[in-house]
Request: fold
Amino acid sequence: MKTPELIGQQNPEEISSLLLHLSDGQLLVPVETLVEIVGLQIPVAVYDSPAWMLGEISWRDQRLPLISYEVMRGGNQPTLKSNCRIAVIANAGDDSKLPFYAMVVQGTPRLVRVEESELVARTNPCQQGELVHVSVSGEDAVIPDLPMLEQACAEWRRGTVLS
Reply:
């Protein structure tokens, strides 16, 4: 279903996207969302944070909140293994105080070109942080609610935590 602002506009035939692997599935995000993949680092613990907030990491002279998407959506804290990486995500909103945040991922993201005909919505109920469950060329994935993740990180930073 097209949103009103897209009616009359020509949509691209395919969208460059990334599959970000998690301990319990994978996320499908637009390629512009990912700024960089960095090696796993131990976050600095933060006092009185929600379970999904692992702490803060240092990246390019900035402190970024590091989240566990698995915990955000009600799952268990993943075991941090040697194949874990940190995905630095660009904030698509206009919060200049939090232009980036970070998320633990498993392994290296995989580039996929998604055509509308290959994307099938699934009927799985969505948890916090999930926009929709999909199947992309037969692979299950979740499209995350990126504005909600950004808002949760921004609210945590301001001290009004979303648990």
